[in-house]
Amino acid sequence: MVEQASKDERMTVDAFLEWDDGTDTRYELIDGRVVAMNPPMPMHAALLTSLGASLLARVPRGCRVYTVAGARNLADDWNYRVPDVAVSCDRSADNWIQAPVLVCEILSPSTARLDVTTKLDFYRALPSVREILVLRTAKRHVTLWRRSDVQWVVEDFIGSALVPLEATTGPLPLDELYAPLDFDEPDEPSDPA
């Protein structure tokens, strides 16, 4: 067990991966600081389960779906993030997901601002990531970030839309994804153009 000397001292990713506080608390490493993660709220947990199952049914053979497993950028010694769901077609034998191609983040009210700024920036900096899916729990609305050469293209999908993902063999239907959340009526479908 590696222990952090003080709250003011920064920890590297390698030290963080060896560190164990002796509890079941989940942590991320943000700019060298160990930060505890809140347990997911029921809507978040239900959407996480549905998303994982929907992706698992659609990833190509040889690819894997990971829930709440860590991701790191080998060029960054100070940050280790934990996406809600990720897809990788490389075997992940270390303490992180090797070469994720799709990263999914479910927004929580307490972390939404950081999830769509610094956490999104971290995922965008991972060389292997081709797509980032950001999901809301209060309504049927997902935002897809897709890498296109040197830029990112952003599309919103709402209601009963089908989300076209490069990482899957078929589109992800929002009706299926959001079914466990029991919304009264879906929002209007998005314009795919």
Topology overview:
Elements: H1 13-18, E1 27-30, E2 33-36, H2 42-56, E3 64-67, E4 71-72, E5 80-81, E6 85-88, E7 100-106, H3 112-115, H4 118-125, E8 131-135, E9 141-148, E10 151-158, E11 162-163, E12 172-173, H5 174-178
Short description:
The protein has 193 residues and is of the alpha+beta class. The protein has helices at 13-18, 42-56, 112-115, 118-125, 174-178; strands at residues 27-30, 33-36, 64-67, 71-72, 80-81, 85-88, 100-106, 131-135, 141-148, 151-158, 162-163, 172-173.
Describe this structure in words.
The protein has 193 residues and is an alpha+beta fold. The strands form four sheets. The protein has a six-stranded mixed beta sheet, with helices on both faces. The longest helix has 15 residues, at 42-56. The protein has a single domain (39-181), classed as tt1808, chain A. Strand 11 (162-163) and strand 12 (172-173) form a beta hairpin. It is 20% helix and 27% strand.
